[in-house]
Amino acid sequence: MMQRGTLPAWPEKTMKKLYVSADIEGVACISAPVEVDKDHPAEYAPFRDQMTAEVAAACAGAYAAGVESIVVKDAHWTARNIDPHKLCAPAGKSLKLIRGWSGHPFAMVQGIDESFDAAAFIGYHSAGGCGGNPLAHTFSSRAFARVELNGQTASEFLIYAYAAASVGVPLVFLSGDQQLCNEASSLIDGLQTVATLEGFGASVLSILPQEAAQRIQAGVQRAASGPAPARLKLPEDFVFKLRFNKASDAYAKSFFPHVRQVSDTELLLETRRYFDVLTLLWFAAQ
Predict the structure, then answer these.
(1) pTM of the model
(2) Domain spanning 15-139+155-233: which superfamily?
(3) What is the pLDDT of residues 79-105, one digit of tens each?
(4) Is 162:234 a contact under the CB 8 Å cutoff?
(5) Among 162, 111, 130, which Cα is nearest to 281's?
């Protein structure tokens, strides 16, 4: 488990602009690889709809709390999963959707910057190598067997919560599997979470889709209107290790500046710049 955030809460201010990053492996009832794969449309379509519904619920909760502007990043696979025709903003308020991958190392939080008051993560999942979700992985299950940051297994939640923190944006809400919600709550005091499912081997025990959307809407509304959570403190130094599934991939990516190959399948980067970590992750996954 990563060290708990120990900085004081973010200064209180009215939340006007919210960033939402959405994945699919942590939405209600999802349990199998075909359900996240557009090449299996019959199985994929219901969970694309659920991803969209949970994002729409998060936006509704934020607007109810007084948020005026929301940017949503579709952050699963092709980044073209959320149905934009099922999203809307109330009159006088703004909602924008980022689709596709730009190539920027911020990836799942592309476009986040100091102008946002807070961030919310929807449909996130446990890290690769963890048992909290049958679809657990970190960024690319094709490329990586394990991703480590400062000696600990790193989830996409942790990687991109740090990315948000690096530009001064606090994470205030997370939905996804129970194991990830437990990890996040131990790291950030006061974080609002909604656990949609719990993994048991290749199976899940899940709340139903409609209930998940209701809980997410209420949770984001609380997060956007209630006390700010603790700030996530960035480490001063980063030791970032990628364990590849294939030795040939590790070799091919070992020429990234300042990276050392420490075994047939493992690369190590030591840096004081978190952006270097994000850049290597993006480069190595391609």
Answers:
(1) 0.95
(2) Dipeptide transport protein (3.40.50.10780)
(3) 999 999 999 999 999 999 999 999 999
(4) yes
(5) 162
